[in-house]
Amino acid sequence: MKAAFAAWEDRIAPVFDVARQMRVVEADAGQVVSETNELLADDLPVQKALRLAELGVGTLVCGAISRNLQEMVAANRIRVVPFVAGDLREVIQAWLTGRFDPTAFAMPGCCGRRRFRGTGRQEDAPHGRTAGAPGRVEIRSGAGPTGACVCPVCGQRQPHDRGVPCARIRCPKCGAPMTRERNSKGG
């Protein structure tokens, strides 16, 4: 398994869109096989997404990330674990041991949930509330009865149980909170 950690000095870079470095760690059975520092060109977001794919990265752990860049990275079949902050070595060590809980390393003010990003829409808000256009609040129901819950850390998938939010389920493989798999319509 190979993961990229957006880096700024010895910490997770606060904003991936402007990050210039990342630490790429390949591990097998919790042991580091290789670890390299990679430079990111200060180019178009699509080039960052393609660079991650070129390196064979399966997971990107980063701070804030724009919706467009996150979707470009995800389109390359790379899991994105956003809004992570903290000491780079501590985050990598937690990932290696399978004890990586994104909420434990959440950026200040994020509370482990994705917040307003780019379009003003708030995802994963409590009780299905989302902020749409200014001055208007939409009520979203869940993503529906079908689909799957996916671990953002190790990629474990399991069928979604109707009436049970994926965020309340712990991954049976690594113990991290699961997330709802997004369908092709962005839901």
Please tell me about this protein's structure.
By secondary structure, the protein is α+β, with helices and mostly antiparallel strands. The protein folds into 3 domains: 2-105, 2-Layer Sandwich (Nucleotidyltransferase, domain 5); 110-140, no CATH class; 144-187, Rubrerythrin, domain 2. Helices cover 16% and strands 25% of the residues. It is built from 3 helices and 11 strands, in the order ββββαβαβαβββββ. The strands form 3 sheets. Strands 1, 2, 3, 4, 5 and 6 form a 6-stranded mixed sheet that branches. Strands 10-9-11 form a 3-stranded antiparallel sheet, with no helix packed on it. α1 (45-54) runs parallel beside α2. The chain is globular. Residues 112-142 have low confidence and may be disordered.
